[in-house]
Design goal:
Elements (H helix, E strand, L loop, with lengths): L10 H8 L4 H19 L6 H29 L12 H4 L4 H19 L3 H4 L2 H18 L7 H22 L4 H24 L1 H7 L4 H5 L1 H17 L2 H4 L4 H5 L1 H18 L5 H25 L1
Helix pairs in contact: 2-3, 2-8, 2-9, 2-16, 3-5, 3-7, 3-8, 5-7, 7-8, 8-9, 9-12, 9-16, 12-15, 15-16
């Protein structure tokens, strides 16, 4: 079905608003943390229910963030007819503003409902983590992304927080490996935001959205993008100190794909074609998570 055929508040409209292709960004850090925990526990004492809850919480929070972004970017006028990225539900009139507000409330409450039982496994500080996730889900779109702090939030909430929290829930401790993996995941997932903001840099500058890309410029961004993937893979040298050689070696496949994507992004530079690069980067990101997880399991 063509996007122009989307009916108001229809199931297809909500699927488009949820942006299912972005869910790999939520899955990767949880997947990597669970694989490392399984390895460190040797499969003994691994708890499947909290593993499922961590994954569900990550998915629901990602959808919640997407809905919040759709609603508030439309209200701020950022999602207008000059935007190059995929069309958004509120801007296209696929979803009414009232329905979107109700959906945001429902997904926020659903995330809290799914995350609350993790207190049993990780202690009451899981409540604080959950509240921070919800708070920054809103603060990202409404304020922080306009100040160029979106990349910091990605490092925190798509890297350090989900990996370390998931690993702690399974093992009851934190390790250098887990923290290293959390930073590496955050850097890899931030490449998705970099591509998105690189594509939208002209429109963001026009609307006053001072992303990191807008602040440092296109040329610096073209150097930063490959560097994020390189640093993420080099961090894998830490795993070798603990005998996880495959967790360092396998992601080299990801790095080769990332560098190809980086070159293509630079060559395209502007326009709708960068949406293809966004899709390739999402694929690369998932491949990284899969290879890193396999690497830990082989260890």
């Amino acid at each position: 079905m063509e996007e122009t055929e989307v009916r108001l508040n229809s199931p297809r409209a909500w699927v488009l608003a949820a942006r299912p292709k972005t869910l790999s960004g939520a899955a990767v850090p949880v997947m990597v943390a669970l694989s490392l925990a399984w390895c460190d526990l040797s499969g003994t004492g691994f708890r499947f229910l909290p593993a499922l809850l961590c994954l569900l919480f990550a998915f629901i929070m990602q959808i919640d963030a997407n809905l919040v972004n759709d609603y508030f970017d439309y209200k701020k006028g950022t999602d207008d007819e000059l935007r190059l990225g995929p069309k958004r539900a509120c801007a296209q009139g696929w979803v009414t503003l009232g329905a979107m507000r109700r959906a945001i409330l429902i997904t926020t409450l659903a995330a809290c409902f799914v995350g609350l039982p993790l207190v049993v496994y990780g202690g009451w500080w899981m409540v604080a983590i959950g509240l921070l996730c919800v708070a920054f889900c809103f603060l990202y779109t409404t304020h922080l992304s306009y100040l160029g702090l979106g990349d910091v939030l990605v490092l925190l909430f798509f890297g350090i927080v989900p990996v370390c929290a998931t690993y702690y829930i399974q093992t009851g401790r934190l390790t250098i490996e887990a923290f290293t993996a959390s930073v590496a995941c955050g850097l890899v997932i931030d490449t998705l935001l970099i591509v998105n903001n690189y594509r939208d840099r002209d429109n963001d500058r026009r609307t006053g959205k001072m992303t990191l890309v807008v602040r440092i410029g296109a040329k610096a961004t073209e150097r930063l993008f490959p560097a994020l993937g390189i640093v993420a893979c080099l961090l894998g040298l830490v795993y070798c100190l603990y005998g996880h050689y495959w967790a360092f070696l396998l992601p080299i496949v990801y790095l080769s794909l990332h560098l190809v994507t980086s070159r293509q992004m630079k060559e395209i530079n502007r326009g709708y074609e960068l949406n293809r690069i966004l899709g390739e980067n999402a694929r690369n990101m998932f491949i990284y998570g899969l290879l890193e997880s396999i690497g830990f399991l082989l260890g």
